[in-house]
Amino acid sequence: MAKFIIEGGRPLSGRIVPAGNKNEVLPAIMASILTDETVTLRRVPRIRDVETTLSILTLLGVQSEWAGDDTLTLNARGISNYKPDPALCNHIRASILLLGPLLSRFGKIEIPTPGGDVIGARRIDSHFEIVEALGGSIEFGNPIIGSIKKVIGADVYLDEPSVTATENLLLLAVRSEGTTRLYNAACEPHVVGLCKLLNKMGAKITGVGSNHLTIEGVSQLHGAEHTVGPDFMEIGSYLCLGAIADGSITIDRVDVADLRFVLKTFSRLGIHPKIDNDSFLIEGGRTIEMQNDIGDRVATIYSGPWPAFPTDLMSVSIVAATQAMGTKIFHEKMFEGRMFFTDKLLAMGANIVLCDPHRIVVTGPKQLYASKMSSPDVRAGMAMLMAALVAKGTSVIDNIYQIERGYFGVHEKLLSLGAAILREQ
Ligand code: EPU
Fold it and tell me: What is the pLDDT of residues 411-420, one digit of tens each?
């Protein structure tokens, strides 16, 4: 099992370019199933989740080819199979995103229950709701079996703004009869990216970026080219790291507009990057001070659906808070398993009280000390890596496949910043 060996405390300085957003590229790859023509995607991170998704699609009959480092072409003319490989689907949560495109293409699906990070119950009820609302039937089991004779537009009211359920609805409803109105849609930048790609393919989606999407069905889609947006989870992670390590990190090719709300929360943690066009400069080596609420009350950082603070940035923010002056409550509303990794930070010397599965209290700053850890999921893994990079001594993190499946070139990027990090098989 591959592991990282990290000697903490080195200053980290230099420039990095974030990869494309993992959670945009995965549904974008699935969108290629909707046409016989070629879909070209740029700024595609060559991470494990992408490779696994491509393997699933290849077995179904989709042709894919890397044309350069981060350009991917996909052609689904030869797709002939609607039963994706269970073992591969077991690796990634995003396999649920086959539901919309395969139903659209074949009128039937047989997809394994999705795998992925064990960070909570992760209900899939909304995915079932949308299939039924658009005229199909679907039965839970392993595999999940569903069918639809004709996709007919409808008004759909999601009971929660699920990211992948919104994406599945888009992937199913774009080729339909009539108009679909989706209320309480997710509107994360990756959902926006998918809408843009689908519109380039000939779909008619309006309301893009809001939580009310209107999809006027079309009968056919065509090929298109699309550049995936920068990964704001990666950018947020390096901003937290840059704030707590010595040195200064510049992050280029970011989309500042997308990050306004994230920056607002970061400022309450004492993280204030300088913005220069499409770059952030974050300087470390200084005391960061968390902001209290009016009346000097301890403030709470909540996660929530976009534009609220993203759950995927909770773990790295918690590590930043261990190094900041003050006290903060972190309330992870969405996933009940996401806070458990904080016992590792506690073992490293952090001052953290785990109140219940959803809430912790962090008081900083506290010196962290090296530890031996195993990465439980992609975001907690990155958080542990950050903790190790600022800790005293040499830490070992194994199961790093969990980090690498979401963070493109993490080892190379950290080396280029001056980290003492060794990757061992
Ligand atoms: N939820 C709420 N309230 C809401 C919306 C969701 O409590 O308003 C709960 C749901 O009940 C569910 C959980 O939050 O248990 C996740 O919600 P969602 O269905 O939106 O998650 P997802 O579509 O399965 C995607 C990302 C996740 C990311 C979540 C939330 C992909 C492939 N996955 O999952 O990404 O955490 O949205 O933003 O897009 C990651 O990249 O590390 C990752 C886990």
Answer: 999 999 999 9
